[in-house]
Amino acid sequence: MSVKSALTAIGDKLRSLLGVTDKYSLSEMPSAIENVYGKGRSDGNVDGQAFGYSKGVEQGKLDEYNRFWDEYQQNGNRYQYSYSFAGPAWNDETLNPKYELKSPTSSAAINLNYAFYYNTGITRTPHIVSTANVTWSGTFTQAKNIKTLNISGVIGSNFDVRHLTQLEKSSFTTVRDCLLKSASGKTVTFSKTAKEANFTADEWTAFWSEYGNWEIGLA
Questions:
Q1: How far apart are CA 128 and CA 161, in angstroms?
Q2: Above 90 in pLDDT, residue 217?
Q3: What pLDDT was estimated at residue 6?
Q4: Is 90 exceeded by the pLDDT of residue 58?
Q5: 210, HSE (Cβ side, Cα atoms, 13 Å)
Q6: What CA–CA distance (Å, rounded) separates 204 from 216?
Q7: pLDDT tens digit sequence for 153-209
Q8: In the chain, % of residues over pLDDT 90
Q9: How would you classify the pairing of strands 214-218 and 186-190?
Q10: At what angle do helices 29-72 and 3-18 cross, to 10 degrees?
Q11: What is the pLDDT of residue 28?
């Protein structure tokens, strides 16, 4: 490469980095190089501030999230959740607890009575860990937009989700698989609308073939 070609290539690179169309003499190239350095430092400072601000906001949100749920759920020790998530103000974004909904001890059952009463803002529940002695009185009353139930453990008492008309098929399976097979005189009640959207009559019969101790209700 000739000296002229080399200088032209350097000039082209400087113009590209600075976003200009100026032609440089040999004596002007050092100051152009200084300008490239200055531009890089300025751009880096702006980008660094934006990155730092973004990270700071993210950390602030995380700190606030932890502070709220640590208080609201007593650092994971809360088990009295009666009416705790009632009403339409909660939604899938805000109802995202830090801790599972469960009893911190084996001696005390979690209280979920009316926990989601008239909550029309959520489409899925947080994770609930159930034990056989949990009662579900009015838990899902008029929580009509819930499609997904995130429940594990054992359901040993009457369970009523008749108002969940949009319940997904996978949530029927979730509930059934949690039912205590040895329980007797207990009823699980689903929405007839949700059942008919997910099962044929034959499929419904087969679905409950191993749960003869339970009365299966539709409303």
A1: 15
A2: yes
A3: 55
A4: no
A5: 8
A6: 10
A7: 999 999 999 999 999 999 999 999 999 999 999 999 999 999 999 999 999 999 999
A8: 67
A9: parallel
A10: 30
A11: 64
Return the bridge partners of 214, or none. 186
Strand order of the β-sheet with 214-218 is 159-161, 186-190, 214-218
* Residue in this structure with the two tokens 């029927």, named with its chain if needed: 172
| CA atoms in the 13 A half-sphere facing the CB of 209 | 6
Q: By the 8 A CB rule, do 102 and 78 touch?
A: no
Concatenate the DSSP letters of all residues of the chain into one string.
--HHHHHHHHHHHHHHHHT------GGGHHHHHHHHHHHHHHHHHHHHHHHHHHHHHHHHHHHHHHHHHHHHTGGGT--B-TTTT-STT--TTT---SS-B--SSSSS--B-TTTTTT--S-SBPPPEEE-TT---TTTTTT-TT--B--EEE-B-S-EEETT-TT--HHHHHHHHHHB-TT--SEEEEE-HHHHHHH--HHHHHHHTTT-TTEEEEE-
For strands 186-190 and 159-161, give the pairing: parallel
Cα–Cα distance between 47 and 53 in angstroms, integer? 10
Distance CA 101, CA 104 (A): 9
Where are the domains positioned within the chain? Answer: 3-71, 75-219
pLDDT at 207: 97
